[in-house]
Amino acid sequence: VNSTIPITSEVFKKHGVYNPNRIFGVTTLDIVRANTFVAELKGLDPARVSVPVIGGHAGKTIIPLISQCTPKVDFPQDQLEKLTGRIQEAGTEVVKAKAGAGSATLSMAYAGARFVFSLVDAMNGKEGVIECAFVRSEETESPYFSTPLLLGKNGIEKNLGIGKISPFEEKMVAEAMSELKASIKKGEEFAKNFK
Predict the structure, then answer these.
(1) Measured between alpha carbons, how far is 114 from 95 in angstroms, rounded to an integer?
(2) The Lactate/malate dehydrogenase C-terminal domain covers which part of the protein (predicted)?
């Protein structure tokens, strides 16, 4: 996602049909995982837990904003760091569990469906539909960045930004920048070589 969305954007630009409000890198899988892991630790229903996940969709670029979780939850710093690491590496955890014979196909399908249903609801006029996605962004120094987005008939109606985050989360955002920018540049360079 961190490289393919820049690739997609560059291809659309070359064909004169680029609209940054309609190109989404779906990062919902990270949100589903964050919601599930927080719910497990707190004895909550995962369907009623909402953790925004910002940044990108790979390793340390996955930044769960547990400080913005609904309902409000608190974890000691060591547990917070462990939980964050588990969310960031959940894809690897599944591949290891399947002994390299597959990946998280069912949860990927669920996350994709959830995002599409939200998009369709918004396109059909439902108000207040918010999903996080990796999009063209001016929220940080990275030209693409995942944040909560208000969706509507035209795709992105408003980028809701990062909001108030904890010092721990601020540090993760800063540490993700070089990897994000490198992945984006790699995607853009790859797209330049298309005929």
Answers:
(1) 22
(2) 27-190
Tokens found for residue 83: 């939980």
Report d(CA 1, CA 108) in Å as an integer: 13
Question: What angle do helix axes 28-42 and 105-123 make, rounded to 10 degrees?
Answer: 110
Which amino acids are annotated catalytic? 57
Alpha-helical runs (H) found in the chain? 4-14, 28-42, 77-88, 90-97, 105-123, 167-192
Over residues 67-94, the pLDDT tens digits come to: 999 999 999 999 999 999 999 988 777 7
Looking up residue 76, the CATH number of its domain turns out to be: 3.90.110.10
**pTM for this predicted structure:** 0.92
User: What's the gap between Cα 64 and its chain centre?
Assistant: 9
> 134 in the Ramachandran plot: left (φ > 0), alpha (ψ -120 to 50) or beta?
beta
